[in-house]
Amino acid sequence: MRLNRLMIAALLAASSLTVPAGVASAKDMIVIDFVGEPNSLDPHVQWNPDSFNVYRNIFDNLLTRDDAGEIAPQIATEWNYLSDTEIEFKIRDDVTFHDGEKLTAEDVVFSVKRITDPEFASPQLGQFNSITDAVAKDDTTVVLTTDGAYPVLFAQLTKLSIVPQHAVEAVSKDEFNASPVGSGPYRFESWNRGVEVILARNDDYWGEKGAFPKASFRAVPDAATRVANLQSGTSDIVTNIDSDLAAQVEASGTGKVLSARTERVAYFAMNVQKAPLDNEQVRLAIAHALDKEGIVEGILGGFEAPVSQLVSPAAFGYVEGIEAPGYDPEKAKEIIAELGETATAPFSILTAPVYDQRVVQAIQQMLADVGFNVEIEMTDMGNWMQRMQSGPESIPQTSFSRWSCGCQDADGIMYPILHSSSGWANVTDEELDGALDAARATIDTDERLDLYKKVSEIVASKNYVIPLYQASVIYGAADGIEFTPLANENIFLNRISWSGE
User: Domain Solute-binding protein family, which positions (predicted)?
Assistant: First the structure.
């Protein structure tokens, strides 16, 4: 995508990562390099990309999305409304967990109640807490009840992994995380902390079986090293590469670049309850200081696209015509001059290695150029997640973030980031809360779009967060890999094939 516009970088000097003993050719084992290791392999505990791209191959979800982005059956084969608040699901009767036990409707009920239990404290709770009950009518029938009409239910259920009740209840939470049991196309084999997770193909899988007997998900924090691994043949897919490294892969003649614009939106987050970000004029000056087009074209090589709202065109809820403050550094300087010390009080931008630090540094420079006093604070992804989802007291002054709910619906990004009930949120705005609540309580799609337009207009007016761009997912892949990047960024091993020798 638009690689012809990129400056062709000089090929990376030879570097290498030690290959774990026993790694076979790509036909026998697919090797995928991520930025970091999973935070969790328990699918109800965490949902950052380095976690869910591993555990989504271990577990089946109630529903899924096909490669075209349409909701499709998985554990549930069909579903229908009994009323506006009751939905009946028929459950497959030919699924077994990796320990040989049969998956039944009781496991589905257990999984729903586990992730919606406030005491379990799942970071995903805000996406499922409209479900008030789950009942197994028989071994293959489940009825879910919601606290009102809930139009996002099916989109969210594409992320609901089914865990085995018998296995979860037999061990501690930490023990299940260390050795998870699912029903998916690959089963857990080993986890060498900080290095790799090994999965083995589930040859008894009920659905499409994987092409590779084994898969290795490796933690390789340095992007240049990930690309070097691809070019040396020690990995088959590398994630989280930027436009410069994509150009390098293209120029090298070894491997290929695969990309897609996603539902993910990159944004500049601000804690509006902490000074100086509690001042609306300070936030307006920040909005005027950030050159979205410059970031996209000058740094990101045109893979991404600027946005003025928290919803990307790949998700329901995106509306045309939202006008946010544009790039106007002179106006930003005027505001800062008028505010004086209020605007020049120091603040920091929290970031983590998974994010493109070229963008973070550009944001810092743009803010400094108009007179802000801002520093970058680097932390690991686990700490970043903890601080960002623990309420206004812990949420940092500002941060660079990219959000994807995996559901391709505005509710999955707007509700957790903006609604006052969410641990991720720091905004308290009754009008905003009301619109978000109403949008998840009607199945009228036109009404929902009107409500999300209202939310986007409020956010643009108050600058509670500053949307930056629709993110692309960019992979480097071995020439023999056949893989279609998805807007929801999922990597399903049983949708990847190998055509090389």
Answer: 70-422
